[in-house]
Amino acid sequence: MKTICLYFEIHQIIHLKRYRFFDIGRDHYYYDDYENERSINEIAEKSYLPALTALIEMAKENKKFFKVALSLSGVGLEQLEMHAPAVIEKLQELNETGCVEFLAEPYSHGLSSLANEECFAEDVKRMVKRIEQLFGQKPKVFRNSSLIYSDEIGAQVAALGFKGMLTEGAKHILGWKSPHYLYNCNLNPNLKLLLRDYNLSDDISLRFSNTSWSEYPLFADAYVDKIAKLPEEEQVINIFMELAALGIYQPLSSNIIEFLKAIPAAAKAKGITFSTPSEICGKMKPVGALDVPYPMSWTDEERDVSSWLGNQMQREAFNKLYSVADRVRICTDPRIKQDWDYLQASNNFNFMTTKSMKLSMNRGIYDSAYDAFTNYMNVLGDFISRVNAMYPVDMDNEELNSLLTTIKNQGLELEQKDKEIAKLQAKLAKLEAAAKPAVKKCAPKKAAKVEEPVAAPAAEPEKPKKKAAPKKK
Amino acid sequence: MKVLMFGWEFPPKIFGGLAVASYGITKGLSLQNDVETTFCLPHPCGEEENFLNILPMNQVPIAYRDHGYEYLKEHLPNMSPEDYYRFRDHIYADFNYMPVNELGCLHFDMGYGPNLNEEINNFSIVAGVVARAQEFDIIHAHDWLTFPAGVHAKMVSGKPLCIHVHATDYDRSRGNVNPTVYSIERNGMDHADCIMCVSELTRRTVIEKYGQDPKKCIAMHNAVYPLNEEYKAIVPQRKPNEKVVTFLGRITMQKGPEYFVEAAALVLQKTRNIRFCMAGSGDMMNAMIQLAAERGIADRFHFPGFQRGKQVYEAYKASDVFVMPSVSEPFGIAPLEAMQCGTPSIISKQSGCGEILDKVIKVDYWDINAMADAIYSVCENQSLYEFLRDEGIKEVDEITWEKVGLRIRKCYDQLLGK
After folding, report:
1. Which residue does chain B place closest to A20, by CA atoms?
2. List of chain B residues whose C-beta atoms are within 8 Å of the C-beta of residue A311
3. Do A373 and B384 touch (CB under 8 A)?
4. Do residue A280 and residue A408 come from a single domain?
5. Looking at residue A331, what DSSP letter applies?
6. DSSP character string of B356-409
7. Percentage of chain A with pLDDT > 90?
8. Contacts of B358 in chain A (CB under 8 A)
9. If pLDDT is split at 50, 70 and 90, which confidence band does B383 have?
10. Of the candidates A98, A323, B107, B390, which lies 20 to 30 Å from B348 by C-alpha distance?
C-alpha cells in the first residue's frame, strides 16, 4: 500500500540592514526591523495563515487519515513570535488535532553541519528543546537546513539520537534507484533516510501556477493518479516543500489551497494513505544504504551546496564566520549568541551567489552578489571584533576553555559550599536554640562571621578575566 | 557587401574614444570576408592599417583642376591618380568659391579644430562627390560630426543610412544641450534607417530626447581588443601593504570626479593604507585638487596628470581598484580595459558598459557611501578582489569586436531586406 509523506518547512531569515564599513565598531545592531516586520507579515498573511487553516480543516475532516509533518527554524520562529504570533497559535491548534509531527532542524538554519560538529549539535539541541516547549513533542526525525546531507552529517545526526532524516532524492546520488523507498545512512544503519521526490514536490511548489507547463492545470485527482500509477513496490512518496510555496511561490489565486484540500479524498479513493516520517521509520525496513560522499541539498539544478559555497566570496564569508564558532560557543553573552544565530542563516550566503539562474532571484535589499558580500563582511567584521573583545585573541581556545571550566567548577564548588554553610548554620542555630535559648540574639552575628571567608573565594572567578584583560591590547 | 563609412578619427591618431570604436567596428566587420569597407576620413596620416580602404577626404576634388598623372602621383600621398580622376568626373556643382587648394580639394584639420562646424559642412560637401563616384550598398556614419555627410550620401544614392551614436550632447552637457549640435544630431537621426546606439542607456536618450521611433533604434554595445604583448608584459609596481584606487579619465563634469574624492575621504576616515590616484586632466582638475585639500586627504590623494599609451595600462596594472563614477556615460570603455589588466572595477549605474558587464560592482554615481563601501570591501577582502579579478578577465575576454561585427552585419542584412 502506498503512503504519502507530506512535509512543510517554515523558515524566514532575519534580514540584515544596510551596514557600511564606517559603522564597524560603532553600531552593533545589524537588522532591518522594518523589512523583517513587513516581510514576515506579508508571508504570514498570504501563505502561512491560509495554508495552516487549510491543514487544520483537512485534519479535522479526515480524522486519523490525513497526516502531515512540519518543521520550523529557530530564527523563523523568533520572527513569528515577534511579528506574527497568530501563526504560532495556528500551529498549536494544528498540533492539537494530533495529525502533525514536528521535526527538528538547526535553530539558525545555518550551514554548521558543514563546518563545526559541536556548533551543529548545539544548534540542533536548542531547536529540539524549543519544539518540546511549544508543542510538547520531542522530535525524532531530523531535517537539515535545505535538506543538506552527506554520509558524515548522517553519522552526526544519528549520534544525536535521531532515528530518521529527510533529504533530497537527487538524481546524481540515486542514479537508477528510486526515491520511493526507505534508505539508511551508510555510516550508521540505524538512521533511516526519506528521500524527496522532486518531480512530485516541484509539481506543486514550482510549477503549479505555470500556464505554459504541459500539465497545467493540475487537479488533485490527476496528481494522485500519478502517484497511484507508480510501480506497486514503490511505497513511500515523499513530498517536501517550504510552506511558503502555498501562497507565495504559487499565489493563492491559483487555487493551490483548494488543490491541497482535495488531495486526501482523492488519495482515499485510490487507497493511498498518509504517514508521518517517524511512522515510516518505525514501520518500514530500509532497502539499503545510500552513499553520499559529498553534501547534497534540495536547492538549484545541481542539488549541492554551490548556491551557498559556490564562489570564493561565499567561502571566505563562511570560513570567517565559523572561525569564531568555538569562541562563540564558550561565550555566554546573550546578544552575541543571538547575532550568531542570525548571521549563520544560509540565506545570507545565498544572496552572494554568482550563478546565473533561470529563475530570477530575490536578493533582498541587495543589488548584486558583491553588494551582499560587502554588507555581510562589514557586519561580520564588527561581530568578530566583538567576539574577540570578549576574550583575548592570542589565547587559544583550549586554554581558554580550560580556564573557563575552572571558573565554572569553582563556581559550582562555591555553590556547594554555600549550601553546606547554610546547612551548618541551620544546624548551629538549632543546636544553639536547643542549648541556650537565651543566647538566640547572638546567632545572626556569628552567622555573619562565618560568611566572611566565603565572600573572598566568591570574588575569585572574576580574577582570571581581569588578569587576562590587559593582554588583549 | 560594400559599406561606405564616414568617421572623424582613426588610429594611430587618437583624440578620443571614437577612434578606438571606429577601429573595432571596422576590424570586426573585416573579419567577414564578404564585407568591403570604405572608410572616409577627413585627414588620414597615412599610417593607418590596411585591412580597409581609407578614403582621404582632403584629397577628393570638389572643383575641377587639370593635372597630369605624374603630378598627381607626386602630390597625392594616399590616393591613386585613377581614383582622383574618377572623383573629378563626379563633381556635382561649382565649388570654386570654396577655399580649395591647387588640387581642387578642401583642407581638413586633424582632430577637432576651432572651426569644427565649418569642417562638418565641408565634409558633407565632399561626401556628395564620393557618394556619386563610389559603388556601395549601405552608408554607415559615426557620431554627429559625420551625420550631415551620411544624410547627403543617402540623398544622392538612395541607399539605406545607418548611423552610429557614440554619445549624445545630453551626455556631454548634463542636459544643457548646444542647439546647433542638437539640430545636427536630430536631423541625422530623422533621416537614418537604423540608429545604432552604444548602449541601452543611449538608446533611451535617443528615443526620449530626440523623439526617434524605438523600432529603428538598436543597442550595439562596444567591445575591446585583446591586450597586446607589450601591455601584457607590464609588471605591476605594487607595494605590499598599500592598496591603490584609481580614477582614470577626463576630469570633467561628465565623469563625476567629485564623487570619487568624497568617497576617498570616507574610506580614509577608516583606514590609512589606501592611496587614491586621479589620473587625467580636464577643466575640473584644479577644483578637485582643492577639494582633496579641503577634506584633508591630500597626503593620500594624487594627481599624476594625463596618461597616454602604455602609461594608461601601467596605471591600471598598478591599481587594486578602478573606479568610474561617471554621471552619464554612453558606453565607457575604460572599465573593460581595467578588467583586462585584472583590476576589479567599480562603475556607476549610469554607465552604458554596465549593461554588458556582470563581474563589476555597480553603484549610483551620487551614492558616495555605497562607493566607499565597495572600495573598502575590495581592498579588505581578498576573496572579492580575486573573484572580480579572475572572473572579470574571463568576462571581458568574451566581449569581442568580432561578435559586434556579426551583429552589425545582421542589421545591414535586415536593412537591405536580405
Report:
1. B373
2. 387
3. yes
4. no
5. -
6. T--SSEEE-TT-HHHHHHHHHHHHH-HHHHHHHHHHHHHHHHT--HHHHHHHHH
7. 73
8. 354
9. very high
10. B390
Would A59 be classed as within a structural domain? Answer: yes
Whether residues B373 and A378 touch (CB distance < 8 A) is answered with yes
Helix (H, G, I), strand (E, B) or coil at A364: coil
What average pLDDT does the segment A42-63 reach?
94
A156 and B CB contact within 8 Å: no
Pick the last residue of a domain from A271, A290, A309. Answer: A290
pLDDT averaged over every residue in chain B: 92
The answer on A413 and A282 residing in a single domain is no
CB burial string A200-228: b at 16+ within 10 A, e below: bbbbbbbbbbeeeeeeeebebbebbeebb
Number of domains into which chain A is organized? 2
B339 touches chain A (CB under 8 A): no
Query: Across all residues in chain A, what is the average pLDDT?
Result: 88
* Residue B270 neighbours by CB distance under 10 Å: 15
Query: Would an 8 Å CB–CB cutoff place B263 in contact with chain A?
Result: no
What residues form DSSP beta bridges with B81? none
Pairing of strands A183-185, A192-196: antiparallel
The one-letter code for the residue type at B374 is A
Is residue A307 one of the residues assigned to a domain? no
What is the domain extent for residue A411? 397-472
Helix B285-294 × helix B257-270 angle, to 10°: 20
CATH number at residue A273: 3.20.110.20
Model confidence, pTM: 0.83
pLDDT in tens, B149-178: 999 999 999 999 999 999 999 888 777 889
Residues of A in contact with B361 (CB under 8 A): 368, 370-371
Mean pLDDT of A43-58: 95
**Does residue A186 belong to any structural domain of this protein?**
yes
Sign for the CA dihedral angle at A398, A400, A406, A408 comes to: negative
CA angle B331, B336, B338 (to 5 degrees): 130
| CB–CB contact A316 B381 (8 Å) | yes
Q: What is the pLDDT of residues B228-285, one digit of tens each?
A: 888 888 888 788 889 999 999 889 888 999 999 999 999 999 888 999 999 998 889 9
Q: How far, in whole angstroms, is CA A25 from its chain's centroid?
A: 29
Domains and CATH numbers, chain B: 2-223+401-415 (3.40.50.2000), 229-397 (3.40.50.2000)
* Range scoring the smallest mean pLDDT among A94-98, A362-366, B86-90, B344-348: A362-366
Contact: A20, B383; criterion CB under 8 Å:
no
Q: Which residue of A has its CA nearest to B346?
A: A370
pLDDT-derived band of residue A85, with 50, 70 and 90 as boundaries? very high
Place of cell 506543486: A204
CB contact, 8 Å: A313 with chain B?
yes
Residue A323 forms contact with B (CB below 8 Å): no
Query: Which residue in B358, B359, B373 is closest to A374 by CB distance?
Result: B373
Q: Within chain B, what is the greatest distance between any pair of CA atoms?
A: 75
Kindly indicate the confidence band of residue A360, based on its pLDDT and cuts at 50, 70 and 90: low
Residue A205 is placed in which grid cell?
511548489
CB of A367 within 8 A of CB of A332?
Answer: no
Cα B93 to chain centroid, rounded: 34
Contact at 8 Å (CB) between B44 and B79? Answer: no
Is residue A386 assigned to a domain?
Answer: no
